[in-house]
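To the wet lab folks,

You asked to see what we're planning to order before we commit. Fair enough. Below is the target structure as C-alpha cells, and below that is the sequence we designed to fit it. If anything looks off to you, flag it before the synthesis order goes out.
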C-alpha cells in the first residue's frame, strides 16, 4: 500500500506520444516491486534485487535512486556476507527507510477503534483508542476516524506529506477493490465508502483478514497455509492459502467459522442455537444452554 510514485527518469517525448506514460508506468511498477521485496525480506542487496526482479542492473540502479530520493529506501549500513568464491567489495544492504515516511492504521471493532502509526518497517510509533457505541451512523464513525488520525499526526509534529497511506481493518464484508464495507450487520452498515472518506491513500480489508496478513508478514507466521480466528464481539476468521487470504463472497472468508457448531450430531435447530457466534456474547464464551452463567 506504500505509494511508489515519484520523479520520472526516462526522457521526455513529444506531446501525444505514449512513450512517457508507458515509461512512467513501468518505472512505477518496478518501484512497487522493489518495495514489496524489501518489505518482505527486510534487507537485500542490489544484485539480489536484480536476481529477484529480473530487471537489469542499470534498471535496479535507477529504481533504487528514485526510492532513496523519495526517502522510501536507504542503505542499512550493513553488508551482505560474501562467499569465498566472490571477488570485489561486499555488497551493501538496502532496506525500507524508517526515518521519514509514516503509515497510519485503523482497527475497527464493534465497540472500540484502535488507531496507530508505524514507520515503513512496521515498527509501532504511537497508538490511540476510542470507545464506540452501537447505533452510531457510519458518517459519524468515519468522521471521528479522520479527526483522530489528523490529531495523532499533529501531536507527533509530522508533516501531512509524511503520511504514505492508511490501512483500515473494518468490520463486516469488505470489498477490498473499492474500499467499501458492503455489509456490517453488527453496526447496521451497508455500502459504506471508507476509502473515499479519508484524506490519504487508503487500503481497506476485513479486520480479521488484515490480522492474518499482518501475522504472516510481521508476526513470524512461517506457514503459508493457516487459519486465523478472532474472538471478540462475534467471531471472525482469516484463512490463508499459499500466503493469500481466501475469499468466497467478496470480502468474506471462504469458510464461515462463526457458523461452526459444537455438536454436529445434534438436530439442525440445536446446531443453529450452538453456532459459535451466537454462543459467544462479548467478550467471552458462555456454556451453551446456560445464558448468563460464569464463563469457563
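Sequence we intend to order:
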Amino acid at each position: 500500500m506504500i505509494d511508489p510514485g515519484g520523479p520520472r527518469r526516462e526522457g521526455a517525448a513529444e506531446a501525444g506520444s505514449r512513450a512517457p506514460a508507458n515509461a512512467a508506468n513501468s518505472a512505477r511498477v518496478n518501484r512497487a516491486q522493489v518495495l514489496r521485496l524489501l518489505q518482505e525480506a527486510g534487507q537485500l542487496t542490489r544484485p539480489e534485487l536484480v536476481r529477484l526482479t529480473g530487471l537489469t542492473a542499470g534498471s535496479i540502479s535507477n529504481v533504487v535512486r528514485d526510492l532513496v530520493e523519495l526517502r522510501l529506501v536507504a542503505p542499512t549500513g550493513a553488508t551482505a556476507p560474501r562467499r569465498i568464491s566472490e571477488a570485489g567489495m561486499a555488497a551493501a544492504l538496502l532496506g525500507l527507510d524508517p526515518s521519514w515516511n509514516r503509515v497510519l492504521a485503523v482497527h475497527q471493532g464493534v465497540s472500540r477503534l484502535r488507531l496507530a502509526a508505524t514507520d515503513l518497517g512496521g515498527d509501532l510509533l504511537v497508538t490511540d483508542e476510542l470507545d464506540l457505541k452501537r447505533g452510531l451512523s457510519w458518517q459519524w464513525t468515519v468522521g471521528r476516524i479522520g479527526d483522530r488520525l489528523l490529531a495523532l499526526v499533529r501531536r507527533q509534529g509530522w508533516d501531512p506529506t509524511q503520511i504514505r497511506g492508511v490501512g483500515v481493518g473494518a468490520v463486516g464484508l469488505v470489498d477490498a477493490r473499492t474500499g467499501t464495507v458492503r455489509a456490517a450487520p453488527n453496526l447496521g452498515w451497508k455500502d459504506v465508502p471508507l476509502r473515499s472518506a479519508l484524506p490519504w491513500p487508503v487500503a481497506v480489508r476485513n479486520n480479521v483478514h488484515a490480522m492474518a496478513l499482518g501475522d504472516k508478514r510481521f508476526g513470524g507466521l512461517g506457514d503459508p497455509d493457516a487459519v486465523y480466528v478472532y474472538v471478540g464481539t462475534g467471531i471472525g476468521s482469516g484463512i490463508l492459502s499459499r500466503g493469500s487470504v481466501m475469499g468466497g463472497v467478496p470480502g468474506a472468508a471462504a469458510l464461515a467459522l462463526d457458523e461452526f457448531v459444537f455438536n454436529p450430531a445434534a438436530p439442525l435447530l440445536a446446531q443453529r442455537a450452538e453456532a459459535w457466534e451466537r454462543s459467544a456474547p462479548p467478550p467471552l464464551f458462555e456454556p451453551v444452554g446456560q445464558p448468563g452463567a460464569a464463563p469457563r
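Structural context that might help your review: Residues 7-17, 258-263, 268-276, 281-296 have pLDDT under 50 and may be disordered. The first helix runs from residue 19 to 41.

Thanks,
Computational group
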